[in-house]
Design a protein that fits this description.
Layout lengths: L7 H10 L9 H18 L4 H19 L9 H10 L15 H23 L7 H11 L7 H12 L4 H8 L4 H28 L7
The protein binds ligand 1PZ.
Pfam families: GLTP
Main location: membrane
Catalytic activity: N-(hexadecanoyl)-sphing-4-enine-1-phosphate(in) = N-(hexadecanoyl)-sphing-4-enine-1-phosphate(out); N-(9Z-octadecenoyl)-sphing-4-enine-1-phosphate(in) = N-(9Z-octadecenoyl)-sphing-4-enine-1-phosphate(out)
């Protein structure tokens, strides 16, 4: 199997690696998890490329910080937040001199991680006649949609209609038969939820949840 083949297992492994014993989140593995998800989206077809392009550009912004001269401050989400806030590197109320801070960029992925969690939980508990498009859009309306303007919500709605059915979806996840996928989802979801919650608490504590 080639290295760029998507496997659900890899997403699980990267998100697992992203948490250290102090419950800090490594940016490197967080974006590696997203990179895996981009591979997955690309395998679903071109309708999703406007979504994966946005994710790729956000991964790139964070990678640039990580490999840049202040890279040591970007090792964990916790150190990134501290560093950017202490050095006034975040536009807090409107976009100005720091339109692409690490904090606001990661916040977009963070919100999307909530969508992922809600969607995968629906998929895990779905039945044969459940529709992926409905699961996706229900999860979307509960999470990301409130942060997106009308035009994006419409485009996303169109993309959802192009989603493959549940059986194909399970196959593309590439983790064995349905029962095995469901088991792996059951294992992955608490991890994703934990990473999400740690980030959410950190952002809430620092009043960063509405960054422009
Ligand atoms: C499996 C099917 C994939 C469904 C994806 C459902 C989520 C739809 C998200 C739509 C994003 C539309 C394109 C760009 C939007 C950007 O404006 C926003 C805000 O960023 P800003 O403009 O402020 O810089 N970007 C986002 O909200 C990030 C969206 C990430 C979407 C990740 C999808 C994850 C897919 C995982 C596949 C299982």
């Amino acid at each position: 199997m080639s290295a760029d083949t998507f496997r659900l297992q890899k997403v699980l492994e990267t998100f697992r690696s992203s948490l250290n014993e102090n419950k800090e989140v490594y940016v490197k593995y967080y974006i590696a998890g997203w990179q895996e998800l981009v591979t997955f989206m690309n395998s679903l077809g071109n309708v999703f490329s406007f979504i994966s392009k946005d994710v790729v550009s956000k991964i790139q912004i964070l990678e640039n910080f990580l490999s840049g001269e202040s890279g040591s401050h970007y090792v964990t989400i916790q150190s990134m937040v501290k560093y950017e806030l202490e050095n006034d590197l975040v536009d807090l109320t409107k976009r100005g001199s720091h339109p692409e801070s690490g904090c606001r960029t990661l916040l977009r992925l963070h919100r999307a991680l909530h969508w992922l969690e809600l969607f995968l939980e629906r998929l895990r508990t779905s039945t044969e006649d459940s529709k992926t498009s409905v699961m996706c859009s229900d999860a979307y309306n509960e999470s990301l949609a409130q942060h997106h303007p009308w035009l994006i919500r419409k485009a996303v709605g169109v993309a959802f209609c192009a989603l493959p059915g549940r059986d194909t979806f399970f196959e593309v996840l590439n983790a064995g038969d349905h029962a095995q996928v469901v088991a792996l989802l059951g294992e992955s979801l608490p991890l994703i939820a934990e990473v999400y919650q740690i980030t959410e608490d950190l952002y809430a504590k620092n009043n960063l949840l509405e960054l422009p």
